[in-house]
Amino acid sequence: MANKDQTDTDRMEKIVSLCKRKGFIFQSAEIYGGLNGCWDYGSLGAEVKRNLKDLWWRKNVQERDDILGLDGSILTHQAVLTASGHVGGFSDPMCDCLLTKARLRADQIEPQSGIAYHFTGASHEESEWSVDRDYSVLLNQPNQDENKARKTAREFYAQFLTDKQIPAKKLTLLGESTSEEKEVTHYNPENGSLLTEPRDFELMFKTQMGASADDHDPNATAYLRPETAQSIFVQYKNVMDSNRVKLPFGIAQIGKAFRNEINPRNFTFRSREFEQMEIEYFCRPEDGLRLTDEWLEKRLSFYDEIGLQKEKLHVLDIPDGERAHYSQKTYDIEYDFPFGQQELEGVAYRGDYDLGKHKEHSGKPLEYFDEQTKERFIPHVVEPSAGCDRTILALICEAFDEEDLTKEGGKQDIRTVMRFKPAIAPIKAAILPLLKNKPELVEKAREVKNLLQPFMNVFYDETAAIGRRYRRQDEVGTPFCIAIDFETMGLEEGKEDLKDTVTIRHRDSMEQERVAISDLLPWLLERIH
Ligand code: GAP
User: Fold this and answer.
1) In principle, which of 90, 239, 253, 303 could form an S-S bond with 86, CB 3.0–4.6 Å?
2) CA distance 478 to 480
3) Do residues 231 and 253 touch, judged by C-beta distance below 8 A?
4) What is the pTM of this model?
């Protein structure tokens, strides 16, 4: 994608619709109107999520000697988040539209230029009603009808009418004046209405612990963690002492995090409840910058391995002044989503900031003792922090394809196919008896299913014509369809040698080949990992 902000709304709508129709992702509490910013993964989505997390865990924990796993609690002691700077510091600037009450992230409003129409109030002569209140509307397009600004202003003032029967258009606007505005951010880009002044909005979800907790008892306050990282820092000494590890070593965690985002949007991209896959890699100070670069490369090859195209991944070296104050280096890995180029993961060199803060606030010694050099110091940390849900969204967007198979002069034939890598695909193989009314085919197909089921997620389907069943599997990304036909039973004249073989149909090429049932399991295992 050449342009960072290039979007494809049509493609995104198709993806969201397929996710619901096929059972990848549903809106949380949909039958009650939906819980904004929360999502439920359906049967196929849950499989994709499990596959991704298992792969990440295998690569980053099980296949490495220097990284250990952790599964920390979600409820977090307020002292932990006070030390980390989240309490009182983890907020976004927020403002409200004075007309619609829509809440916007003040720092995400694109600067606009145009003519602002200012008013000091409005009145309704017949009922002798009036209101004194300053209000403005920005018209940000050239030659826009100025009456649009007046119409918006009347709708704003109509909110204060005591007699709701009076239509907004009957109001007289007071004290109109205009000004030329350049690159301003205090008008709603959607409707031109003035916004409130930005104010800080706390992003953490707070709760009270314990049955007898008094609602106002500050000691009973706990938080749903806003990142998985903090429990890693707080447990770093326990993990180190219980495993007798030496620097450099890492602690990895996959788990839920919660942020009361002002504007959850772009499907699951910005959610209020989401999962992170984080590593805190502890090292000597002099190795920090080098390891940050090494981790960036490792993370990029992980994305390559799971099937995200290199050309769609972009690395942003965050400049001085835009990084968190404690970070000497931060790379953002961004992906070309259909709604624009957006962050997938951050790889940050956090120095000794976090351990230093926890040492200071807890009063506990969190230094590392180097047996060889006899030095005692606070290790530095490199943090590759990935979003699990964002990666799944990227995988779904990457996989979605519509292939035009229309034959010349024929009816339009578009094949929807999810081109997941087999390791990510929710169903690895579909087992399809050619006909459901032939008991011998059905029995053989069930035998094949039973053979494979202990080793992978398979799906048995005997309804509809085989072609339609292939297409259904294409739509959910099943890489291999296994057809049990008359050749399998040795019932096809002249093809007796095909007895006990099956047809394997490849999702991407749609090519078919025959494989002996006795070879089927190793054949599949080789291709699905
Ligand atoms: N411990 C560092 C940390 O939490 P972050 O950049 O705030 O850094 C890391 O979050 C990753 O978590 C992001 O790159 C993104 O993939 C994911 N993430 C953050 N906020 C999210 C949200 N509201 N919804 C979904 N994923 C989110």
Assistant:
1) 90
2) 6
3) yes
4) 0.89
